[in-house]
């Protein structure tokens, strides 16, 4: 799976972020079954209790649904997934802008740098 964990942050949060990424990219589709707790724990090399906590937190946030005896599934509510995607984007952009402001860049400069970077990435892909 290729996950490397940051020792300064709870593993269950990092695992949630990883799964959120898969859900937002539709690598895990709405209604799709997630790996069992044990299966995911073995794949990523963590304690099953950590995976269980991850799934419980995701269920509390309505991102996944547990079906007794069947497993844990990605929500079929596409609005919930879109809201998750929007929240992650808002949080990341907010953190980025704050960091750039802290090094002395004004919002206009940030925007200009972003436009330049996006243009150069577009050229790289072509």
Chain-wise SSE layout:
Blueprint lengths: L10 H14 L12 H8 L3 H13 L3 E4 L3 E4 L3 H25 L4 H19 L1
Antiparallel strand pairs: 1-2
Helix pairs in contact: 1-3, 1-4, 2-3
Quick take:
This protein is mainly alpha-helical and 126 residues long.
Structure notes:
The longest helix is centred in the last third of the chain and has 25 residues, at 78-102. It contains 5 helices and 2 strands. With 126 residues, the protein is mostly helical. Strands 1-2 form a two-stranded antiparallel sheet. The protein has 2 domains: 11-77, Orthogonal Bundle (Arc Repressor Mutant, subunit A), CATH 1.10.10; 79-120.
The geometry reads as elongated
Structural domains: how many: 2
Under CATH, the topology of the largest domain can be stated as Arc Repressor Mutant, subunit A
Q: Work out the oligomeric state of the chains in this entry.
A: single chain
Strand order of the largest sheet: 1-2
* Content of β-strand: 5-15%
What letter string, H or E per element, gives the SSE order?
A: HHHEEHH
Do you know the CATH architecture of the largest domain? Orthogonal Bundle
Look at the structure and name the CATH superfamily of the largest domain. Answer: Winged helix-like DNA-binding domain superfamily/Winged helix DNA-binding domain
Helix tally equals 5
Number of strands: 2
State the end-to-end distance: 29 Å
Features:
Arc Repressor Mutant, subunit A, 2 domains, 126 residues, mainly alpha, two-stranded antiparallel sheet
């Amino acid at each position: 799976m290729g996950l490397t964990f940051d020792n300064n942050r709870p593993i269950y949060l990092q695992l949630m972020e990883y799964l959120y990424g898969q859900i937002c990219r539709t690598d895990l589709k709405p209604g799709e079954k997630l790996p069992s707790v044990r299966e995911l724990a073995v794949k990523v090399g963590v304690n099953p209790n950590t995976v269980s906590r991850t799934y419980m937190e995701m269920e509390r946030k309505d991102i996944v649904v547990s079906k007794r005896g069947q497993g844990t599934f990605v929500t079929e509510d596409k609005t919930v997934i879109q809201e998750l995607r929007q929240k992650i984007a808002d949080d990341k952009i907010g953190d980025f802008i704050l960091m750039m402001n802290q090094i002395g860049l004004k919002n206009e400069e940030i925007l200009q740098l972003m436009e330049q970077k996006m243009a150069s990435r577009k050229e790289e892909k072509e």
